[in-house]
Structure formats: structure tokens, C-alpha cells
User: Fold Pyrroloquinoline-quinone synthase from Lipingzhangella halophila.
Amino acid sequence: MTALTGTDSFVAALRAQSQRYHDLHPFHVRMNHGRLSRRQIRGWVANRFYYQESIPRKDAAILANCPERAVRRRWVRRILDHDGTEAGEGGIEAWLRLAEAVGLSREEVDDERHVVSGVRFAVDAYVSFARTRTWTEAVASSLTELFAPDLMATRLAAFENSYPWIDREGLAYFRARLHQAPRDSEHALEVVTEHCRSADEQERAVAALSFKCDVLWSMLDAIDRAYAD
Ligand SMILES: O=C(O)c1cc(C(=O)O)c2c(n1)C(=O)C(=O)c1cc(C(=O)O)[nH]c1-2
Assistant:
């Protein structure tokens, strides 16, 4: 890779990773065109639960490795967004309600019985990345969320229009992410541009984001294969 030192070219290199984002995966393309069966939607929801429940552990690893009080003060919010501040609240709970809306029981999702090995490997690799790499690389790996809001809006419209059997109340998770994802990714971009100044640090940040695109893509490969027609 060529040396990157200006903030503009660095941000451009990060944004260019959108070409590898999982909105382009054939499974997501079929989802957004209303072409998935109930079984496939259920398989996706049950498997993605493993990602959702792992995200706070990934963010806790970033907090544990981050020496900057100002960054931790804002980052900690992500954990509360997912876990809630009491039972019955938060993003993981909202995902379980999505599971119920697509016809799964909360028990069968919560006990991970549907999680396929490829999804488990990919998600575990993401958590392990955050534990073992520098905290700035881990922050950079979260930047896929820069690309998420468009996908979230498309997905909401697709679920409302093409899958009328899904109870709309169950879509609250995606509605919340429409404002949470831009807030979180703007903060992460601020942190990364402030802390990754050398060409080496910037290359590592882009590589971290590329790795994360691979995580998300691999999850869909595994789901696509497990629930093929
Ligand atoms: O449904 C999606 O397409 C999607 C993608 C991503 C992402 O791009 O990493 C996240 C989420 N959803 C999400 O719901 C979420 O909470 C989340 C946290 C993170 C992260 O890396 O910290 N990514 C994502």
C-alpha cells in the first residue's frame, strides 16, 4: 500500500472499504429484494444474535486497552446501548424481540443452538482482534458502521414491504441503529484520525477495517451456506 499521511487521503482510504461491505453480499442483496424464505430470515436473525451479544464484550476490550479517559467516557455508552441499564432494555433485548417477530422463541436464540461454526469463528475473531491489537486498530475495525445506515434504511423498507409476515414492532432494533450508528462511527472516525498520524498507523487502521469487512462477509457466507434453498 502507498504511504498515507494526509487526513483526507486516510479518510478516503477508510471510506473506500465500503466497496467490501456486506451490503454487497448476495445474501443481503436477496434479503433486500424480498427474496429470502422465512427459514432463511430466521437463520440470519438467530445467527446474527451471536454478533449482537458479542459486541459489548468487544467494546469492553477496547475500554480495557484504552488509556484515554475522554475516549472511554464516550465509548462506554456503546455497552449500555446493547446491554441496557436494566433487564428488558437495550439492543440485545431488542434483537430478541426481532427474533420473536420472525417466529423464533427467545430461548432457542438465547441458547445459541442455531449458531453455525463459521459465524462463531468470525465473531470470535472480531472479539479476539479487539483484545489483542492496539486499541486504535480495534476502534478502526468498528468503522464498518460508517457504511451501515444506508443498509439499515434499505433493510427496514425491505422488511416492511416484502416480508409482511414479520411483526413491525420487532423492527425497533434497526430504527434505533439509524441514529446510533452515525453517532458511533463519527466518534470512531474522530478518534482514529486524531490518533493514527503516521503512515504505518494509518495503514494498520485501514487493514483493521478490511479485516472487519472480512468478518461480516464470512458470517454471511456461513449463513448463506447453512440455509441454502
Ligand atoms: O446489521 C448490520 O448490517 C450491522 C452492521 C454492523 C457493522 O457494520 O459492523 C453493526 C451492526 N449492524 C450493529 O447492529 C451493531 O450494533 C454494530 C456494532 C458494531 C461494531 O463494530 O462495534 N458494528 C455493528
About this structure: The domain at 7-226 is CATH 1.20.910.10 (Heme Oxygenase; Chain A). The pocket of pyrroloquinoline quinone is lined by residues 55, 142, 144-145, 148, 151, 177 (CB under 6 Å).
